Amino acid sequence: MKSPFKRFWPNDLRGRLTVLVLAALVPMVIAQAAIFGYWYSTRKSAELQSNLELARTFGALYERYLSDLQHAELTLGEALLRLEPEPALALLESRAKNYPAIHSFTWANPEGKILLSSRAGAPGISVADREYFREIIRGKQWTISDLLITRVGGDERLVLARAVRSGERLLGVVLGEIVPERLGETLTARRSRGGILALFDRTGRIISIVRGPDVRATVPSSHHVDRMAQEVIRSGQDWSGFLRFAGEGVDRLAARTPLPGLGWAAGASRPFAEVMAPVRRNLFLVLLVVLTICLASFLLAEFVGRSIINSVAVVREGAATLAAGSEARVAIPQIQELADLARTFNHMAEQLTQHTASLERAAEDLRRSNQELEAFSYSVSHDLRAPLRAIDGFSHALMEDYSEQLPQDAQRYLNIIRDNTQRMGQLIDDLLAYSRLGRREPNFEMIDMQALTRMIAENLKAAGETGTAVLQIGDMPRAYGDRTLIGQVLSNLLSNAFKFSSTQEQPRVEVSGREEPVQNVYWVRDNGVGFDMSYQHKLFGIFQRLHSMNEFPGTGVGLATVQRLLQKHGGRVWAESAVGKGATFYIALPRRQR
Amino acid sequence: MTNEVEILLVEDNPNDVELALRALKKNNLANRLHIVKDGSEALDFIFGRGEHQHRKVENGPRVILLDLKLPKVDGVEVLRAIRSDPRTRFIPVVVLTSSSEERDIVETYKLGVNSYIIKPVNFEKFIDVVRELGYYWLLLNHPPAV
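Structure tokens for the assembled complex are given below, as produced in the milestone run.
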């Protein structure tokens, strides 16, 4: 995954589980939020509607009350027409007492002059200029005034005017003086927490207000004129929405509805917080559930992750123990795939144990056969040479003590016997040296190959092996190996080069080397007799010789030794040659690994 | 002390004994030479035990030529016995053997051998070695007073 998503896709198991859990939880949380949002808005519009219903019901109650009241006024008016002034006043007074909201009933003539009134001091006063009276004159059967100040007493009142007619002719008007504060008391208003019900006159001023138990008496402020009430009276349309009263500072869900019969408006409002309290409680519950699910999911992910990680850790520790060289078996975890892994691991460990055991057996066998070989070579070096010494010694004694009595041929035979004995001795010595080299472990160090080659050449010169050859030493990179063993290799190769070029008129031996990436290659080149490349497979075998003893002496151990020593160094030896064209022997030594 | 043994040769191979004797004779070193055939007899001779009980340890040989591979008690054991007794500790011992094994050489030197000579197959070389040896140990070397 090379996409930018890679940064959200962690490398560790625990991180990936977390991402998976998040991938499952996030849609769930979003879905929950959407469901809750839908629910919330549905609830809000339902509450707005129910608030409007409340305002309507409240308004309807007033309309009904006032309608009943005007009907009572009509009955009263008709009765008044038939009574003398004195009993008529008595009737007015007694009727006024029957209605708690009514302060007084008044009878005015069609000119607007008050004739009778249960309020003292009212008779004689004209109400002809009042708007409600004008409406009656204009033909309305009944009407209700806006809030007005009474001309007697100066009280803030409402007046319910009822025309009493005979046909088209106005006989008089009954006026009911209503105390606005008492209007609310007369009604069994629905009082909810924080709820306010209100009645507005044509100017939008509050006529009557019913407050819920916990609403401060100053909310809304006195003589509040409501803009929304004015608007619904003007348009005749319901309104519902939000408002906020000065001095309270909370959002309210509010509704206004016009009361066409009265020309007024009714209103209802409830604090939004109060209305949405159950929803909020539900929100809290939903949040609690969601959080619990999230927490549980993460805990589960952690638990599952931990169990996987622990199982993996068990296998890892087992592998580490195994890597450290100890025996290790791991417990089989419950998770199936990891159980397979653990079983495979145990199988591997079992195989490893078996292989190790068989390797140890092989190493033990090898050690034993090495010991046997050592014992063998020890006894060879002792016992095989003793008879040779005797043959040589007594041949020598025979020659020395009886040479006059021996014919010429017998003396020559004795010499041949001695030559061969000594050669046999040399073979035994070389063989022992070869087997000893095999047992020695290389002691690695950096070797100055040019200096070593010069030293070896000096030694060979001292031993008289160089003859007339010209030795040329070229560039030679430093080598990493055992100085003594590599010296032996150079000695054998140089000795061969000198030996096989000794028959040339101008024997020449060249030693050089080069660096390669993983190994250094060195070569010894001579212009000697060379050899047939088809015999090269025999070149490095022990006691293998490509020349007869008469041509060149030797036991056939030198190149076998070279090969063995290079194998010990992880290197190799090879040769290129042609008969009569000289030979080049190459050795490759691995470079030091850093 | 004219009949004091000067050279003790410890060698089990009769051929080697004869050749050694011949080499010594050629170098005029065969006077007062005593030959024993195994390690046990060598110890009896050196420490005056068994059939050599009339010998005094103090009259030990001036030099011991010791083969390593011997019947009964091997050369290394004989050397160890010689070196661990204060009376014989300073007798020069020359190991004369076929073994060119490094561990034999190292072990005998650790036990304080004075010289280690590998018997060459070539008899002429053997004569040379014995000559040098004789001159060195019998004529030039003066052991410390016991």
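The domain at 442-590 of chain A is CATH 3.30.565.10 (Heat Shock Protein 90). The two ends of chain A are 35 Å apart (CA to CA). Further analysis is deferred to the final report.
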